[in-house]
Each structure stands twice: as structure tokens, then as C-alpha cells.
Amino acid sequence: MPVSRSRRRPRGVLTGIAALAVAAFLLWHGMLPDLGGAASLVESFLPWAFALIALLALSALFRLSLFAGLGVAAAAAVWWSLFGAALLPAATVGAPAFTVVSENLRAGNPHAAEIARELAARDPDLIALQELDQTSRDAVSDALDADYPYSAIVGTVGLWSTHPIHDEQRLDLGLGWDRALSVDVDTPGGTTRVYAVHLASVRPGESAARDEMMKELTSTVAADDAARLLVVGDFNTATTDRTLAPLFAELGEKADSELGLGFTWPSAFPAARLDHALVRGLSTVSSTVLPANGSDHRGIEVGLR
User: Fold this and answer.
1) Which pTM does this prediction carry?
2) Cystine design at 210: which of 8, 200, 247, 271 (Cβ 3.0–4.6 Å)?
């Protein structure tokens, strides 16, 4: 017997429910247990929920369903409340007093020196590089030392500066071997404490080393009484990852100065922002993701004052 019209399921009900579920997940993803770093990985790609919302919007349009449309609108509104401000270009206010570029070069990259020269051609005051190995360390030093006479290299992390560097400190941040450093740089307007870091990588079920380094870095920064402070490098932690929240309570990061969410990894099709420049006592007047240049990360450039 045919099902009567009154007993038929309303059009688009499943699409509407799915959209509301996406909205609820975006609002309460923080309640997910972080088992083996699983929640951390999910949150790293949280902004990509817009792709699912777009598919649900097409389904609602195809079905001409008011309920589905309202559900999609709710999900889109929640997404925009979380990521809309970061998506729009941040205003550039005034000229920077000094600029900083940072990039993970990729270990074993035969083009490391060429990449370093490309970064130097942008004429920054500071260049922070990660994943230096013995070969690339020497090649990069040869490429930069003439124009950047002040440098500090610890493990796989290096910092080159046009301004004098002093009070270098080697940091392992709980990793067991040094993979970060701090220096004082005589930047215009006064001394700036600079931390150059490369936190441990994250893989499914393997986030403990990264989490420990993040905890140690946060504690170190919280205890640092420097008036002007910059922490820059490859954090292996996306902006939306809950692991970064305690450090964000101590330091700030400006949204990208161009349209987009400022993703830096992987370079061929960036899907997450793993590279950061966080500040305290400084104003970030511009922040830009650089074009792909042969590494697996894209570099970042920030103007500070």
C-alpha cells in the first residue's frame, strides 16, 4: 500500500540533522577526549568543516528543503563565528620597525641555501629556520652570514639577524636534546627576547613529545619577564588545536594580512597553520604567508613594532 503523503518523511530532514550535528560539533569539539592526540588532529583541520557545510548546502538546495536550509544556515553561522574574523584580511596599521621571516626548510632539502637566499631577498631583520641538518646548516650559513652577521644555531634551529644578538640560551623544552633557543636581539626601540623553536612532530597516537615541549615552552614564556618577546618557528600545532590555547593565553598572534586563514602546511596545498609568530609587548602590524619555494612548509613574514 502506498505511504500516504502525511506519513512521508519531510524532504531534507537528514540533511538538516546532519547540518545541525556539524554546528554542534563546531561548538562543543572541546569536549572530545584527546585520546592519543586524536582530538588534536581533528582540531587541526577544524576550519575544513566549511567543505562539509558547502556539500550540505548543495543537498538542501537540491531538495528545496526549508528545514535543511535552516540547519545549513545554523552551521554556517557557527563556522563564521569561529573563523570569519581570521578569514578576512587583518588591517595593516603603520610601518613595522623590524620584520621577521621563518620557515621549516625540510630536512635533507638540497635547495636549502637557495631558499635561504630567497628569504633574505625580502630584506627581513631576522630569519628563523628549522630542520637544519649538518649539510644544510653549513650551506645556509654560507648564504646568509655576509648580510646577517649575527647568528645563533642550536640543533636543527637557527636564527640570523642584522642586529646584534647576545645572551644565547639553548633549550630542549623537555625533548631530551636541544631543539630551541632564546636570544636577546637589539631591535629598534629596545631589546627583544626572541625564542626560535621547532616542536616535535605529531602523528596518530604520537603527540606526547609535542605536548611536553608545548607545556615547557608555555611555562618558560610565562616565567620570562622580558618587556618585548617574540616566539617564532614551526610549532607542529595548528591555530585551532587545543594544545596551543595555554600559550595563546600568554602571547598573541595577528590574523593574516591577506584573504584566507594563513595555512602554511603542506606547501603544495596548505591545510593547517603550523608555523607561528607569537608576541608580547610588541604590535604585529602585518602577517603574510609566503609562496611555496621548495620546502614542505610555506614561510611566514611578520612586521613588528
Assistant:
1) 0.91
2) 200
